[in-house]
Amino acid sequence: MAAGDAAILLPYQSRWVEDRSAVKVIEKSRRIGLSYAEAADAVLHAAAAGGANVYYISYDKEMTAGFIQDCAQWARAFQAAAGEIQESVLEQGDRQILTFVIKFDSGHQIQTFSSNPRNLRSKGRPGERLVIDEAAFVDDLEELLKAALAMTMWGGAVHIISTHNGEENPFNQLVTDIRAGRQDYALHRVTLDDALADGLYQRICQVTGRPWSAEAERDWREALIRRYRPNEAEELFCVPAMGGGAYLPRSLVEPRMAEAPVIRFEGDRAFNTAPEPSRAVQMEDWIRDELLPLLAGLDRSRRHVLGMDFARSGHLSVLAPMEIGATLHRTVPLLVELRNVPHKQQEQVLFALGDRLPRLSGVKIDATGNGSYIAESAHDHWGSLVEQVMFSESWYRENMPPYKAAFEDGTITIPQHDDVLEDHRALRLVNGVPRLPRSNTGGGAGERHGDAAVACALAYAASRSESAPIDYRATGITRAGIDAEEAPDYRAHATGWGAVGGGVDTGGF
Which CATH number goes with the domain that contains 380? Predict the structure, then answer.
């Protein structure tokens, strides 16, 4: 739709119409006017001399009739040269399929079907468009898409619009595949609250002649939610029903596990009350004895990334390095677990590990709460390689499906350990979003909280980022690590990444 026409629509409608992707999908709340906006765009496309036919499919007669009437209304509003709505019946074996058609002087038409006609396979001339409305409710969406996607070969487009109809529905599987990166389609999402934020209720008041107020909008929203209960999450907030159980079940995780070390350091009372220099020396010894021998075996030709889930007490801090193989297979060669360890010593371990990861290409660190200190310190140390992650529903929604897809596709390997398995099994669908619930996941005194799963997910997210390995000249001065000969402490020094000096090259061990 032209820029001048976009003001007619609300912002979320405009964003949808202006997206010219070959295949675009939207999960949406009910009754927010997406089909109405689609009708406007369909008229402009069919009425234009350089446009093409538009085909519309939904699951019942009322929806197709409503769409074609909206198209007729938009045709009059745009003063598009078009004929009257024509109604006909297609004979398909022993079935009769009702169709509506509007023909334009451009030579193109908008045609709607009340079910899934097999003759869709004959469509697909250059520029033609197919709209599948309430896709979660049509018969055999998967077969329909097989036929529909052929339309894109000659510059056509497929628009898929729907509210959700269950977690196992093919529409939700399609949305999940897009988020996981399995399908390169455009994805939009508009909940009731998203629509209200973009002015939905104000537009309703404008059309119906009601006075608008914030209080009236709040009352209208609450009444609508009550009307849809107990299905308001699915109908209004894009949360597919029937969620439950482990997001990453044992049967999916165990086959992707292989023997690899999980090393642990737990700070006791004496350690935590000791002066910081004393703690630093003790941590140096642990790093030298436990961590460095494992890092010496890493493949120095491969890129590596690092994820860290932070905790100060109670739960664990987990550091998960990840190798990106030549075939893009991700491998977690080891895990480091820290319990009840002060910030400075966690920083000590983080820098010792990260500085020795070959071709370090990305770091994502939990910056929630007290984790902000470690994340900020890492950013000071490694610069733009580091993302300070503030966990949110949107972060989990965007990053957990690709992580799950790696297990489904067999492109990831993690350490074989019961605690690591249980941490992954702790992930649940909470309001339709894969994340950790509040409860712990065991581990001795019940003080794990999916920590290893989150660290590995952060590493996987880092492996998918656009960062590149740092190209640097060695300073000749140890950076927050142990010199094999002098063994200085692990505190960060002013000389670090980007500084140039003389002395021994510490790029190795």
Answer: 3.30.420.240
Residues composing the chain: 509
Q: Which two tokens stand for residue 286?
A: 């642990």
Same domain, 272 and 212: no
Say if residue 75 is in the same domain as residue 23: yes
C-alpha 323/C-alpha 321 separation (Å) is: 7
**Sheet with strand 23-28: strands edge to edge:** 86-92, 95-103, 109-113, 54-57, 129-133, 157-162, 23-28, 186-190
Task: Encode 368-421 in three state secondary structure.
Answer: CCCHHHHHHHHHHHHHHHEEEECCCHHHHHHHHHHHHHHHHHCCEEEECCHHHH
Q: Is residue 243 in a domain?
A: no
Q: Between the CA of residue 172 and those of 28, 164, 409, 459, what are the distances in Å?
A: 12, 7, 18, 26
**How many CA atoms does the CB half-sphere of 75 hold within 13 Å?**
26
With 0-12 CB in 10 A as exposed, 13-18 as middle and 19+ as buried, what is 219? exposed
Q: Name, in order, each residue with C-beta under 8 angstroms of 227's C-beta and a sequence gap of 6 or more.
A: none
From first to last of its 509 residues, the chain has per-residue pLDDT tens of 543 344 689 999 999 999 999 999 999 999 999 999 999 999 999 999 999 999 999 987 888 999 999 999 999 999 887 778 888 776 665 566 778 999 999 999 999 986 665 656 667 688 999 999 999 988 888 888 888 888 888 889 999 999 998 887 899 999 999 999 999 999 999 999 999 999 999 999 999 999 999 999 999 999 999 998 888 999 999 998 865 567 898 888 999 999 999 999 999 999 999 999 999 999 999 999 999 999 999 999 999 999 999 998 778 999 999 999 999 999 999 999 999 999 999 999 999 999 999 999 999 999 998 889 999 999 999 999 999 999 998 999 999 999 999 999 999 999 999 999 989 988 887 777 888 876 555 544 446 889 999 999 999 999 998 766 655 444 555 444 444 344 444 444 444 444 333 333 333 33
First to last CA, the chain: 61
Handedness of CA 451, 454, 458, 463 (dihedral sign): positive
| Percent of residues in the chain assigned helix, strand, coil, to nearest 5 | 40, 20, 40
Instruction: Tell me how far apart the 2 most distant CA atoms of the chain are, in Å.
Output: 88
261 and 116 part of one domain:
no
Residue 372 domain flag: yes
Counting the structural domains of the chain, the total is: 2
What domain range is 319 assigned to?
250-463
254 shares a domain with 232 = no
| Helix and strand counts by DSSP (H, E) for the chain | 19, 19
Q: Do residues 186 and 285 both lie within one domain?
A: no
Question: Does residue 64 sit in the same domain as residue 197?
Answer: yes
- Angle of helix 451-463 relative to helix 418-425, nearest 10 degrees, comes to 80
Q: Are both 40 and 172 inside the same structural domain?
A: yes
Tell me if 307 sits within 8 A of 234, measured CB to CB: no
Q: Give a yes or no: residue 481 inside a domain.
A: no
Residue 25: CATH number of its domain: 3.40.50.300
